[in-house]
Design brief:
Rossmann fold; binds nicotinamide-adenine-dinucleotide; about 250 residues; about 45% helix; about 15% strand; globular; alpha/beta
């Protein structure tokens, strides 16, 4: 199994890509700590995969993170998946919207990495085990601008910068850090964005039309990349913005 012997923490694992990733990592032999702010989705994840250890964790709350991480063994994998899609351009983005998106999409990663990194590095030194951090970015980021994704693109671009900086600082120690950049993925929040559009049928057609492969990604198109980037199979890959977009950026 590709993640045997590794302990992995995933944020926003109650639904969507985080949940599929938690299930995939558990199937590959990892000890998985799956966290979210939604107790109901965590309960259903636990029912589906009892070996997964679930925990309530708000990645916007530094004290909660400190307490939660203090109770964990050293990690060999961290997948910072939590993020929010704000709809609109700069004139639709009030300062509070900007602050919220940067807090959840970027600063939460700073909080999580600062909390887990010391024990991760100690464990690498003591046991020789490799470790990998994966941060959720998007094709909508510094890689490409999309209409009505102003603060989303800005914040996900910052995720790529944060990722490269950490990769540069720790490459010599063997700690890897990459960003994942999916195309449009069929998840509960995407369904919410489609339902909130003035014409939901047209909105879904528009999302599909920008995908050269003619379909949305499923979470199962993305989870194998998460397994790969957390596993030692990707041991020579660091500082990358790994694009899984069905060809949008061709
Ligand atoms: P989603 O948006 O459907 O679910 C988000 C999850 O995050 C929920 O379980 C929610 O409870 C949790 N969450 C919200 N606030 C939280 C907080 N403060 N602390 C912890 N958890 C919190 O999931 P998704 O669509 O799979 O998106 C997951 C990530 O993937 C996001 O970072 C998103 O930006 C990114 N992404 C999504 C797509 C897409 O098309 N769905 C494409 C590219 C990137």
């Amino acid at each position: 199994m590709r993640l045997q012997g590794k302990t992995v923490l995933i944020t926003a694992a109650g639904q969507g890509i985080g949940r599929a990733s938690a299930l995939a990592c558990a199937r590959e032999g990892a000890r998985v700590f799956a966290t979210d702010i939604n107790p109901d989705t965590l309960a259903s994840l636990k029912a589906e995969a009892p070996s997964i250890e679930t925990g309530l964790l708000d990645v916007r709350d530094t004290n909660q993170i400190t307490r939660y991480v203090a109770g964990l063994p050293a990690l060999q994998g961290l997948f910072n998946c939590a993020g929010f899609v704000h709809h609109g351009g700069i004139l639709d983005c009030a300062e509070a919207d900007w602050d919220f998106s940067f807090d959840l999409n970027v600063k939460a990663m700073y909080r999580m990495i600062r909390a887990v990194l010391p024990a991760m590095l100690e464990d690498m030194k003591a046991s020789g085990r490799a470790a990998s951090i994966l941060n959720m970015a998007s094709m909508a980021s510094s890689l490409k601008g999309f209409p009505n994704r102003f603060v989303y693109c800005a914040s996900k671009g910052a995720v790529i910068g944060l990722t490269k900086a950490i990769a540069a600082d720790y490459a010599k120690l063997g700690l890897r850090c990459n960003a994942l950049c999916p195309g449009t993925v069929d998840t509960p929040s995407l369904r919410g964005r489609i339902a909130a559009a003035a014409d939901p049928v047209q909105a879904e057609k528009d999302f599909i039309a920008r995908q050269p492969m003619g379909r949305l990604a499923t979470v199962d198109d993305i989870a194998p990349q998460v397994v790969f980037l957390l596993s030692d199979e990707s041991k020579f890959v660091t500082g990358q913005a790994v694009v899984v977009d069905g060809g949008v950026l061709i």
